[in-house]
Amino acid sequence: MPKNMENIFLRVKAVREKLGINQEDFGKLLGVSRATIGNIETNFSKPKIAELIKIADLGNVTLDWLLKGEESSFTPPITDLKQLMSSEGRPANATLYPLVDKVTAGDFSANVHQDNIVEYYPVNYVRKNCFLVEVEGDSMTSEDPDLSISPGDLLLIDPIETVTPGDLVVAKLTGTRHMIKQFFISKDGIELKSYNPNHPSIFITQDQLEYIFRVVYHQPKGRRK
Fold first, then answer.
1. Can you spell out the DSSP letters for 60-71?
2. N or C: which end of the chain has fewer CB atoms below 10 A?
3. Model pLDDT for residues 121-138, shown as the tens digit of each residue
């Protein structure tokens, strides 16, 4: 085996460090154990092809580089961009984020366990330890096109970022599914406001709030495949 292919373990570790996550969280993204990642990074075992594909996607690198440390000399045919649907295109510097089905209280790793991930979706925005949710319902639609958030749009969530009044948030009340609202603090407690005037604000107290996370990026017209 050529020497550069023997060094796959170094490039796998480089991808993980680029993502800024530990071996346990990296393993969760790949659907393997922390011990498996440790064995790969110490060159005790080689990653399977399915794992290599996921690693390449997560690190936004090619399989050629991951396997050999160099790019292929093959020149692909030029793509007619006019024939490429915008929803299928992936920007050159896009980052893959996990799109989760349900949001739970806790940090990044608590939300991105394998059974909760619908898919990995490319977003042209870079931020560590974030995940995506898909908007359901029309409560955040608005006549202002720059403000409106439509069903099917994707929102990038940072579970660590501090929430301040006026922020767009994903919140969950006890006994309900997560919802997208604008966060305010009133004299009576917390106000969760909709952009759509047909949906009245929700007023709650702190003890009714199971969790609240800040939205840091809006990807219009996102969709599940």
1. T--HHHHHHSS-
2. N
3. 888 888 888 999 999 889
Cβ proximity of 5 and 68 under 8 Å: yes
Cα(102)–Cα(148) distance, rounded to whole angstroms? 23
In Å, what is the CA distance from 63 to each residue of 12, 52, 216?
A: 11, 7, 30
Sole residue written with tokens 């799109």:
99
Query: Closest Cα partner for 109 from 26, 16, 174, 213?
Result: 26
Structure tokens given for 98: 């996990």
CA distance 137 to 171: 15
Render pLDDT for 97-127 as a digit per residue (tens, 0 to 9): 899 888 887 778 888 887 888 888 888 888 8
Give the span between the Cα atoms of 31 and 116, in whole angstroms. Answer: 12
DSSP assigned state of 124: S
CB neighbourhood size of 138 (10 A): 16
